[in-house]
Amino acid sequence: MSVQTSEPPDAACGDFAGRLLDWYDRSARALPWRVPPGSGRVPDPYRVWMAEVMLQQTTVAAVAGYYERFTARWPTVADLAAADDADVMAAWAGLGYYARARNLLACARAIVRDHGGGFPDSEAGLRSLPGVGDYTAAAVAAIAFGRPAVVVDANIERVIARHRLIETPLPAAKRAFKAELAPLVPADRPGDFAQALMDLGAGVCTPRAPACDRCPVGADCRARGRADIERLPVKPAKKAKPQRYGIAHWIERDDRLWLVRRPEKGMLGGMRALPGGEWAAMPPAESGIAEVDHGFTHFDLRLTLVRREAPLAAAEGEWWPLATLDAAGLPTLYRKLVDKMRERKG
DNA sequence: AAGGCGTGGAA
DNA sequence: TTTCCAAGCCT
């Protein structure tokens, strides 16, 4: 309801959601998966879900192209559910966190098989789907279904930790963030509220050098002006990344390259790859024809490329034409090796 | 519940 | 160069 207030103007300082949404109506980023605020249009739950999964731990810039290609190739959840696993995994190549792609397919198929082809419209229903955790369930419920869910991502954690000066370290602070946020969620625009907070965290209340002078809720921010504002939210110390080493095999015959598929679980699970041994703490004795360094989340890897004449006798794999190697969907680690070999051949 | 799980851009 | 970290999920 829209009640006319008789309170003096500075009482608006209490209206967190009002100030935030006014700012969002003026400053919302135009994103491929987003419906403009105030347009009255309702976004397609399938597209909202697709975008949210891609955006997990991944930047907007990295996602945009993948989102366009996926939604063009598989316009509906039924199309995606009917897709070949290999096609989806190859299309995801380069985006990272490949369990998301496996769960994306599993979720699409669960929607078709168990939910009549339509997404559940409640947070709890969404939460039960593969690859949908607390954040994504809340985001889809709020954005696609207008449910007053409490959406908390890393941007929103930062905004709330600062605005309320919460110094509890993550992840324990999560409960406090939700508790602070819950009474602020406006019943009429929960999706815009969540997206406004994320835009605020992404563009104004940034990890370093926040632009507090442009903040719509800065007037009552408890961290504003503090020299240590960048310390919030408090995070646990990171562990050092170990160095690991491995070998990859370049097996070429008749202008084709021998590719294998990695096991479903573990690093780069389910992705096409160059064959090779386990990755270990010690460098290989063998010297190779190329070498790449690649940083993963929890270790750094140096991979040595060694030429081989033929696959192991019992090996499973496929001879992939060198001319169309880009379409094989190799993860970045192996793409780096392919690029090096192309440089060699000039 | 703490660690496994990618990548590329920014500072 | 190194470090940080982005619309997290799963086990």
Automatic annotation (TrEMBL):
Its EC number is 3.2.2.31. SMART domains: ENDO3c. The keyword Membrane does not apply. InterPro entries: DNA_glycosylase, Endonuclease-III-like_CS2, HhH-GPD_domain, HhH_base_excis_C, HhH_motif, MIG/MutY, MutY_C, NUDIX_hydrolase-like_dom_sf. One of its GO terms (biological process) is base-excision repair. Binds 1 [4Fe-4S] cluster. Residues 54-203 form the HhH-GPD domain. GO terms for molecular function: 4 iron, 4 sulfur cluster binding; 8-oxo-7,8-dihydroguanine DNA N-glycosylase activity; adenine/guanine mispair binding; metal ion binding; oxidized purine DNA binding; purine-specific mismatch base pair DNA N-glycosylase activity. Its cofactor is [4Fe-4S] cluster. PROSITE patterns: ENDONUCLEASE_III_2. It catalyses: Hydrolyzes free adenine bases from 7,8-dihydro-8-oxoguanine:adenine mismatched double-stranded DNA, leaving an apurinic site. Keywords: 4Fe-4S, DNA damage, DNA repair, Glycosidase, Hydrolase, Iron, Iron-sulfur, Metal-binding. Adenine glycosylase active on G-A mispairs. MutY also corrects error-prone DNA synthesis past GO lesions which are due to the oxidatively damaged form of guanine: 7,8-dihydro-8-oxoguanine (8-oxo-dGTP). Belongs to the Nth/MutY family. This is Adenine DNA glycosylase. It comes from Sphingopyxis indica.
